[in-house]
Amino acid sequence: MNGIRVFGESVVFHVGPLAVTDTAITAFMVSAGLIVIAVLLRSAVLDRPGSAAAIAGELAVQWLDDLVTDVVGHPAPGLAVFSGALFFFIAGSAIAGQMPGVRAPTASVAATSALAFLVFVAVPVAGIRAKGFGGYLRDYVRPNPLLAPLHIMSEISRTFALSIRLFGNMMSGQLIVALLVALAGVLVPAPMMALDLLIGFLQAYIFAVLATVYIGAAIRVGEES
Amino acid sequence: MNPETLRTIVVVASIVVAGLTAALGAVGAAFGESRIGAAAMDAIARQPDEAGSITRNLFVSLAMVESTAIFCLVIALILLFANPYITGG
Fold it and tell me: How far is the C-alpha of B69 from the C-alpha of B78, rounded, in Å?
């Protein structure tokens, strides 16, 4: 059981007082890879319209726009960018976690809490930008001011659930693969790794959809009835 | 009771409860997910045109229900790997 780490972080090196963990390093690597891919797709869309890369980029953007429009009820370009960033980061982490010796950044409570905290902060920011301060606060006293504590409780508990769900799924997948590798040879863990990758993509989609639903509920206009 | 015996009792209780937590959490989530899956199949059979939207809601509801099982799993893992009541464990 010594080789399996479920909770906690392993510090790789220190930069002054700042401890750099392996989670931070892999998260930055995933972000850098995504930025490189995004820049390549952008130049493909601008310079070589009709090529496979350009079509892939346009399909991804179209898919995100449709998803957000379906959930919110009207187009919300900023929200599509936010949800898309969440989706591609979590999916990229799932791919990175399949590499030998690399632990997916989302298999750490620190990273998933940071992602859920982003959603927690984005809800009031987007709500205030869309409806104004008073309009956003009025949502809390609807339908009755007595329910305001419950609204606040639900925002905190759903943030907690968002982070623990992602962490539990990603970490349990890695745990199963680690146990199988310790138990039996080379090819036995392969189906479980494939399942882990599938669950990673599914969780990325679910995280993005839930973030869209939460933020969409805050920015939806014309919900007076 | 000497501290060693006390510690053994806590360790045994943690292991047993961790197994029970994971098992009971899986039972509840399995029943819930089977009902969601059956209802989604029924809905797709009735309205094949809405299959895309039904499938999206199906996945989101499955994830919501499955998160209870995941919470149970995380609690079981806390009991096994990060138990606050076993000092120096």
Answer: 14
Cβ-nearest to A165 among B70, B77, B80:
B70
DSSP class per residue in A65-86: HHHHHHHHSS--HHHHHHHHHH
- Distance between CA atoms of A85 and A35, rounded to whole angstroms? 10
Specify the pTM: 0.87
Joined tokens for residue A154: 């639900």
**How far lies A80's CA from each of A43, A66, A68, A114, in Å?**
20, 9, 6, 19
Which pLDDT does position A225 carry in this prediction?
Answer: 38
Cα of B71 to nearest chain A Cα, Å = 7
Using a CB–CB cutoff of 8 Å, tell me whether A167 touches chain B: yes
Q: What is the reported pLDDT for A3? A: 54
Of A153, A160, A152, A154, the C-alpha closest to A113 is: A160
Going from the C-alpha of A154 to that of each of A157, B56, B62, the distances in angstroms are 5, 23, 19
How is residue A33 written in tokens? Answer: 């890879």
pLDDT tens figures, A40-63: 999 998 988 888 888 999 999 999
Reported as a single tens digit per residue, the pLDDT across A146-196 is: 888 998 998 999 999 999 999 999 988 888 888 888 888 778 888 888 999
- Per-residue pLDDT reduced to its tens digit, A92-105: 999 998 888 788 88
Q: Tally Cβ neighbours within 10 Å of residue A195.
A: 13
Set of chain B residues whose Cβ sits within 8 Å of the Cβ of A7: 77-78, 81-82
Residue pair A194/A20 in contact by the 8 Å Cβ criterion? no
| Chain B CB within 8 Å of residue A198 CB | no
CA dist A203 and A90 (Å) reads 8
DSSP secondary structure, B63-78, as one string = HHHHHHHHHHHHHHHH
